[in-house]
Write a structure and sequence with these properties.
heterodimer, A: alpha/beta, six-stranded mixed β-sheet, B: mainly alpha, 0% strand, globular
Chain lengths: 277, 271
């Protein structure tokens, strides 16, 4: 029997009406997606195609103009109004609070919002923070402040902060795009390792084909604006991977296959002047 | 064979700049101060004692004033004026600045006034304030308040407005309530600016003390300077000036230290 999907996006539109003279901007057009429990799904598309908007819609930060979103079978509300907050976000820039230590930043999601109002046994928060600091390789950095960390360390904290809330769905918004190439590759590998242990559903936004292919069970290709899902692509690659797979001919062929799906969309964006980054 | 030349200073660092060790920096600063004091003493030797006194005479006058017990009540009074006025300014400036940052309506109502009054030289109000409130402590407290409140208010407002939108997104994403956002993001995010506002406010407040005491007062260090000028007691004037200079320095140094301690991420130079 197949598990119920973790994330269900049905006929979602997002239309921004800004100003009187300008035409309304259609960011998302009739987006459909069903993401199974425990799956790692990447969403790729040209920049400005609404990938991030879609992620914010799934998280409940942005209300869709039309359509519905369910996570874990429940209609999505703003995180503030979700007593059993079952999703967490990993941001593009680490966005750690500069006045808090790494440990306090990682604990943030348990100290505010709906999860802060759940009774937890004493010491539970500390133990969980400790566990995820260890899992993300941050042990020893608990008392550091974000400005003392490298870019990679910041992103580990960013990831730990999301994982510590035990989300059913982990929403990741191009988390490695600001890192240098070497750090990015190592973080990808690290993420594969962490995900294989945690078996959570992951929705991962990226514009990096190789990254999408390396990480995912499934890739959704989005069109240039207005954003639609053009193609659903099941990865034939084995689940457990290491970086060496990127050099295999099979991997490279798949990458070209994906690029062929995406190319015309990227060209459209370029022709349109690429208004938004 | 050319290996010795392989070590290059990156161009952007420039010669010496940034590479100068901290010890040399402190040594040069100290040397500069010592030279200044010597120059002061030298100038004093060749000028009329009636108009200019040297550092030595100033210190002597200070000790004499302290021994006779004349200085302490003046110092206490000026300190009290500053403390009351500055305390009130912080008590009003910080909450109002935060309210302006949080509420569009409050902002719309108060922004024009804050801008106008911030741009007005408040010291020009000195005679008027003394006329209204008399020569007691209240006129000085009001002048200190008027001097200090706007830098504090404006800096709090701007600081809270400019708290990173990204930080707010983090708070939203984890479902923080409005009050959690206010306490957990807005205030700590704005605090470095609030502290700079207080530093500027303290300096303005000291000016308020001086001006208020010049225009009408029964005592205080400013009053002491004013009275000394009328009797050509130049050394006493120098004492008063030095006291204000030190007060300004101390206030500035103390608040800057707090700023650095609280917001180390604002300076990227690790100690």
């Amino acid at each position: 029997m197949v598990d119920a999907p973790s994330v269900e996006v049905e006929g979602v539109w997002k239309i921004y009406r800004s100003g009187r003279s300008r035409a309304p901007l259609v960011a998302l057009q009739d987006v459909e997606a069903r993401i199974g429990k425990g799956r790692f799904v990447s969403i790729i598309g040209p920049s400005g195609c609404g990938k991030s908007t879609l992620l914010h819609v799934i998280h409940g930060l942005v209300r869709p103009s039309r359509g519905s979103v369910r996570v874990g079978g429940k209609a999505v509300e703003h995180p503030r109004n979700t007593p059993d907050l079952n999703r967490a976000m990993v941001f593009q820039d680490a966005m750690l609070l500069p006045w808090k230590t790494v440990a306090a930043n990682v604990a943030y999601g348990l100290r505010v919002g709906p999860l802060a109002r759940k009774p937890v046994p004493p010491g539970e928060i500390r133990d969980r923070v400790e566990h995820y600091l260890r899992l993300t390789g941050l042990t020893g950095f608990e008392r550091y402040y974000p400005h003392e960390l490298s870019g990679g360390m910041k992103q580990r904290s960013n990831l730990a902060r999301a994982l510590v809330t035990h989300p059913e769905v982990l929403l990741m918004d191009e988390p490695f795009s600001a890192l240098d190439a070497q750090t990015r590759e190592l973080m990808q590998e690290e993420l594969v390792r962490i995900c294989s242990r945690e078996s959570r559903t992951v929705v991962f936004i990226t514009h990096d084909l190789e990254e999408a292919l390396f990480l995912s069970d499934e890739v959704l290709v989005m069109s240039s604006r207005p954003g639609r899902v053009l193609e659903r692509f099941e990865s034939p690659l084995p689940r457990s991977r290491d970086l060496a797979i990127k050099g295999r001919s099979e991997f490279i062929e798949l990458k070209w296959h994906l690029w062929s799906k995406l190319e015309s969309e990227v060209r459209k964006t370029l022709a349109g002047g690429g208004e938004r980054g | 064979m050319k290996e010795d030349n392989e070590v290059v200073t990156p161009e952007w660092e420039g010669p010496g700049r940034g590479a100068a060790p901290r010890r040399r920096y402190i040594a040069l600063g100290t040397l500069s101060l010592v030279l200044g004091v010597i120059a002061w003493q030298v100038i004093a030797r060749f000028t009329n004692k009636l108009f200019f006194v040297g550092p030595w005479e100033t210190v002597e006058a200070l000790l004499e004033l302290a021994r006779s017990g004349e200085l302490q009540p003046q110092l206490w009074l000026s300190g009290l004026e500053l403390a009351y006025g500055f305390g009130l300014a912080a008590l009003v400036g910080v909450p109002v600045g935060l309210a302006m940052a949080v509420s569009r309506n409050v902002e719309a109502l108060l922004d024009p006034w804050a801008s106008i009054l911030y741009a007005t030289p408040r010291l020009a109000l000195g005679p008027l304030v003394v006329l209204w409130l008399g020569i007691g402590i209240s006129s000085k407290v009001l002048l200190v308040f008027l001097g200090a409140v706007f830098p504090i208010l404006i800096n709090t407002y701007v600081g809270a407005r400019n708290v990173d939108a990204q930080m707010k997104l983090v708070a939203h994403a984890f479902g923080a309530t409005r009050s959690e956002q206010f306490r957990g993001i807005l205030i700590p995010g704005a605090l470095p600016h609030i502290l700079s506002g207080c530093r500027l406010g303290a300096i303005q407040g000291i000016l308020g003390v001086i001006v208020g005491e010049f225009f009408g007062s029964r005592g205080g260090v400013g009053n002491m300077i004013f009275a000394a000028a009328e009797t050509f007691d130049t050394a006493k004037m120098f004492v008063g000036i030095a006291i204000f200079a030190v007060a300004g320095l101390l206030a500035s140094f103390a608040l800057r230290t707090v700023e650095k301690w609280y917001a180390p991420w604002k300076q990227n130079a690790p100690e």
